[in-house]
Write a structure and sequence with these properties.
Layout: H1 6-24, H2 34-48, H3 54-59, H4 63-81, H5 84-95
Helix pairs in contact: 1-2
Length: about 100
């Protein structure tokens, strides 16, 4: 496996740092866009800077993992609306005597 050119390494590092700042600090005062948009922006910058090709980016998408994450989010929303987390918190605090 050949090493990438220094230009690609620098541009890829810039894209990663931008993503990392937006992922770790989602409420940056001057740019409150959140983690999701920060992730998409980082991916777009990797393609725009030609660090990876669009075909490589498309090949990196794992639909089974995305389906699992989407299903987990849907279930957690329904559990939250049914106050299941509140009742579990009460149950666990009762069991722990505190």
């Amino acid at each position: 496996m050949a090493l990438a050119s220094p230009e690609k390494v620098v541009l890829g590092s810039i894209a990663f740092v931008i993503f990392w700042i937006l992922a770790v600090f989602p409420a940056v005062p001057f740019l409150p866009i959140g983690r999701t948009v920060g992730s998409l922006l980082g991916a777009m910058l990797m393609i725009i800077f030609r660090v990876i090709t669009p075909a490589q980016a498309y090949a990196a998408i794992n639909l089974s993992v995305l389906g699992l994450l989407f299903g987990t989010m849907v279930v957690s929303i329904y559990l939250e609306r049914a106050n299941a987390f509140k009742y579990l918190g009460i149950l666990f605090s009762w069991k722990s005597h505190g």
